[in-house]
Design brief:
The chain is α+β, with helices and mostly antiparallel strands and 101 residues long. The chain is built from two helices and three strands. The protein has a three-stranded mixed sheet. The termini are far apart.
């Protein structure tokens, strides 16, 4: 999957959300707690996100929440998440978002 370039304000907003998700991460493998009509996490597009700073970069493996359904579900019911994985919420236009984690 190839992602299109985004405006810096949209990118950094999404990066802040990803950083918040990564701060709450616990080592282990992603797993759903139940199966009640939720989308399988494996059906979400996967990509990588490299964050550069201080002359180095860190690569994160991410799921891409690019539809309202995927954004609504997010990482709901994921019990464990490795420190280098997360989710990127893609919005076509800037908008205010609220998230509960």
């Amino acid at each position: 999957m190839q992602l299109r370039p985004v405006r810096p304000d949209a990118f950094f907003g999404a990066l802040r959300l990803l950083a918040a998700a990564l701060l709450l991460a616990v080592p282990g493998a992603p797993a759903f707690a139940r199966d009640d009509g939720l989308l399988e996490l494996s059906s979400f597009p996967r990509s990588t996100l490299t964050v550069h700073g201080g002359g180095t970069g860190h690569v994160f493996r991410i799921w891409v929440a690019d539809t309202p359904e995927r954004q609504s579900q997010g990482l709901m019911f994921v019990r464990d998440l490795p420190a280098d994985e997360g989710m990127l919420f893609v919005n076509r236009e800037p908008r205010a978002m609220g998230m509960w984690m």
